[in-house]
Fold each of these.
Amino acid sequence: MQYEVEPLFAEPIFRADLSHAITPAQVIYIKNLAMAQNQTNLISEDRYIFEREELASIKTAVEEALEVYRSEVMGIEQRLYVTQSWSLINQPRVGMHGHSHSNSIVSGSLYYCDLPQPSSPMVFDRHREYRMLEINPSAGKRNIFNTNMNAIVPKTGELLLFASGLQHYVEANTATQPRYSIAFNAFIRGKIGDYRDVSELTLQ
Ligand SMILES: [Fe+2]
């Protein structure tokens, strides 16, 4: 029997190197931000760090990447802009619980300085809802169509962009050094819906 299996839909993860936009002084500046305890890791007290002038070049590079994501990945006319932005530290043995980002369309992570080795992956979950039936592929039979998870090992200087509704977690940091990153949410500005269908909505 001859057969073909074609993908109907796919979930994107956008990866770009932004190391050109990050200076050593900015790395020190971000590492020294006042931090608060998150569930197990640390999160900056300031949850709008991209509003700081010292981080302007990083914000601009993120905005440029969001612009590419908007036009080339989403293919939409509206504009994407960063809402909240914060820094994170995962100390050795600390990961990040599974979560998704509410009130956001696109979220991102930026690995702004040297990652510890081995670098713990970010793991994305295919399922966004309660699963009454869990029917999982056998070991060795996992593929893009049936896998429940996909892990991304970030690189130093790398930006990841993904749909905010995607569940994700970070595996525990198995290195002896802390794992630093920045995260942010983005939303759209502009008109969505349709005037004649009375579904129109203008997002300022
Ligand atoms: Fe997240």
Note: The pocket of fe (ii) ion is lined by residues 99, 101, 107, 168, 183 (CB under 6 Å).
Amino acid sequence: MFNNIYNNKKVLVTGHTGFKGGWLSLWLKQLGAKVYGISNEVYPDPSLYKVSEINSQVESHIADIRDLNSMLSIIGKIEPDFVFHLAAQPIVKIAFDNPLDTFNTNIMGTANVLEAIRRIEKPCIAVMITSDKCYDNVEWPWGYKETDHLGGKDPYSASKGAAELIIKTYFHSFFKKQGKIKIASVRAGNVIGGGDWADSRIVPDCFRAWAKGDKVIIRSPNSTRPWQHVLEPLSGYLQTGQLLYNPDKVNINGEAYNFGPPTDQNYTVLDLLRQLAINWDNQNADILQIESGDFPESGLLKLNIDKSLFHMEWKPTLNFNETAKFTSDWYQAYYKSNEVNMLDFTKDQISEYIIVAQRKGILWSLK
Ligand SMILES: NC(=O)c1ccc[n+]([C@@H]2O[C@H](COP(=O)([O-])OP(=O)(O)OC[C@H]3O[C@@H](n4cnc5c(N)ncnc54)[C@H](O)[C@@H]3O)[C@@H](O)[C@H]2O)c1
């Protein structure tokens, strides 16, 4: 898998205490990497990090990416072979409440991490995670391509568009000439999966409510999102790292890549919740309550994934129902049984996902 390139490598994951960073850390550990993490906090229970005991799998550093000196010192000491930068303020609503904090973390934090990588003496691969929201969303019905305009009408989206510009600048001004650091930026949309307990995200809101026997409140039932299981973009990020390290047909250094579901697989919030409710064995329409939202969020956002397909032969693995099932299974294991070891369960889901990918002939899983 991934040409075995992560085995015995030093891999730094920023945002390792978060949802995507936690899953990525466990997957990297399974691939034989020595995993290091940088995050500014460990979220209280429940969090994937605590529930799945991810601290037992990584060398964890609690530090703020807004602090350049900390980044220089920690990253300089680790001298990672790979960096996956995920640390961010990722919630649209929080960015409306506190735009400057979001700009500092998502823009200057990214610049600080890049600056620390620039000063490492040895070669390093950097995979920089931004978002589908980095695009100027003009609400058109087709998917955004990597060459479309960056933008952001709300503070979170603007912070991710700006992070993309900084990444591009570091590539063109420094890394391209030096050749020592190889870099790509990767853009994905809303991911779902076990262990997300963030506020103001629909899937965590859902399971939090259902676990207590409450209704879930839906702000924008008809918004379509490119829903994916968290392991889908992570497979793309890992393949990006692999191809930067070991180029195949195409030189992907300095490029940006979208990872998303097939374009014909765009479901509304309501479609998703209905499917999750079926798996939660609580099929009662009564568990959904629709209310209007109080802040603007884009209604339509799709990614075009042709570039990832052509350059990397990357494809999504799970269909919509499998995505919902993986997600519900995880929360059921957590909420409905005291017996389950969630570290083992999470690792087993990664193995199960790999088996499905192999069965479907997905390239990264085969060699
Ligand atoms: N979850 C999604 O649906 C989604 C969609 C698109 C893009 N993304 C992007 O993926 C990345 C990970 O998202 P997530 O859902 O795992 O978020 P999360 O909130 O679960 O985790 C964020 C992580 O970043 C860390 N962090 C935040 N501020 C920091 C700071 N100042 N210094 C150091 N660490 C800091 C947190 O401690 C945590 O470990 C983010 O860049 C996010 O914007 C997420």
Note: The radius of gyration is 19 Å.
Amino acid sequence: MTEHLNKIIEGNCVEVMKTFESSSIDLTVTSPPYDNLRTYKGYVFPFKDIAKELFRITKEGGVVVWVVADATIKGSETGTSFKQALYFKEIGFNLHDTMIFQKTNPIPQIYRKRYNNVFEYMFVFSKGTVKTDNPIKIDCLHAGLKLNGTTYKNYSKGEQKREKLAKPVKKQKIKGNIWEYVVGKKAEDQEAKGHPAPFPSALARDHINSWTNKGDVVLDPMCGSGTTCKVAYQLDREFIGIDMSSEYCELARNRIKQYQRQPTFKFE
Ligand SMILES: C[S@@+](CC[C@H](N)C(=O)[O-])C[C@H]1O[C@@H](n2cnc3c(N)ncnc32)[C@H](O)[C@@H]1O
């Protein structure tokens, strides 16, 4: 496996993943082509084969984050994202969490008798129970507030009566599962401008921090401009990137090289 680490590999990800050992990847963060919305540099997208290979190469307790949205065709959303999520379940993954990537600067929509589309899905699949979970915490708005006399149901014991006395509000709590990002505006994302659909570096960072520890192996089998790989490298994880396009592979390598610590390190 070591021969693939910290490389951007050009090729069809199904064929490349077939050369990986089983149970060798801790985390995959990736975003597939959405419903032929873009042509990229001419791609083939054998979804079911990709999903099955991802299951084989993911470690027990490992995670796959699948960032996806639907096209609207003849007035209807395709529902491809949900079909894909159900297929991941069918082949053995847990649907650990259906998360939302909300855009603070969505593309303005011309009037199409529907609300402006401001989000994409981030399906979080796990192979068995998640092995690494470093939840992002946020400050509680009412930290320290004493809720004297307030009672709760004790859900952990399955009790239906409101008997448990409330403790003062904690300083921090686990963040919710709707994550908000600005798209394409930050300097760290401008680096990807040769690619038509990069996701924000912060999105990759939050998932990598959540589901891995230093030294773990992070894969993006459709890595485009290399966002996942660059962030994994910055966070001291091992990375593997794959893309069908030689142009995007080159873009990804050059992007990561800017952060290179070992001058002799090769990314191809
Ligand atoms: C939505 S883009 C990914 C963008 C990436 N997350 C980023 O931040 O730059 C999808 C990528 O998948 C690549 N692709 C499509 N089918 C592929 C396949 N079968 N194997 C490898 N790459 C593929 C395309 O070339 C494209 O760059």
Note: Residues 105 and 182 are 6 Å apart (CA to CA).
Amino acid sequence: MPLLPLYGHTALLDRFRDALSRQSLPGSLLLQGPRGIGKQQVALWLGRSLLCENPDRSPCGECKSCRMSSALQHPDLHWFFPRPRLKDSDPDLAAVRGDNVDGIMERLESSGVYEAPGGDEGIFVATVRAIVQTAIMSPAMGRRKVFVVGDADRMVAQEGADQAANAFLKLLEEPPADTTIILTSSESGALLPTIRSRVVSVRVAPLSEQEVRAFLADPVVSAHLDVGPRTVDELVALASGAPGRLIGRDSWQAALTQARRLLDAAAAPDRGTRLRVALGQGASGARGKFSDTLDALTVLLHERSRSAAAKGFDSEAVGSARAIEFVERAKELASGNVNPQLVTASLLRELAPLVK
Ligand SMILES: [Zn+2]
């Protein structure tokens, strides 16, 4: 099964085309933006473009390189992303490669429609070592090699892994002339500062409503969506520009439920309720989940503001709109190394007068 076509991001792709034609694309890049907007798809598109044999119209989709890279079979297009930890505590390069191929096959089987990695999945030190080892080799087929590292914030710092980590940092800082490294992250605040300072960051924007509709109408996508009784309009509103979030283990649904709980707590008259709900947010290890909750809270507040304005409840509309600003600030804090309970407690205090 081929990967889905890439939906949206036309302006960004134009920028990249321009950089490619001027050969000014940086050697290491970080694509950052919300989960579920297609950052890894954009990164793979860049990989195909870099490897294409017709640079004036890359990716041409016709040359041998393009045919191989679009089937993810190009030996110089390397795609890594979080995987469950291997049983062998010190796997060799072959074991890591084998597992990586398994992961890619799984994603191909669903045409690249996959859910966010689970909490037990990570990019472990053996994988980092494999990236570094492969990067110093010559390309197998073409003139270049490209590494796409999805959810790079899931790189796991491990004891005794300093050597691999340092080698990776050196690779990011000075990739070989024939190598491009593209990291993606929806939690870029969770990336090690030592990584962030060595890559050129590119912001990837959410999709437009029209693009979300096109994505949802793709038969491959609808086969992977548990739509239930919801209408397309409801799904479009739920997706809020990031339709990939609707896929899989209902994590977005869970985030919306939790966000509703937070809103109710903010509107509760007593401080006790707010604190209890904040403490229920969990302390750490659930950073991804927490930022999903905050994204969901933004979506709910937008809805609230819109429907209040439609009914002529102006102060409620303004209150909800102002509340969004506080949520956005909380998101910034949450993407750093801040305790979700503390962020939630102060956010609920700020929201209380706005959402009563
Ligand atoms: Zn081509």
Note: The pocket of zinc ion is lined by residues 52-54, 58-60, 62-63, 65-66 (CB under 6 Å).
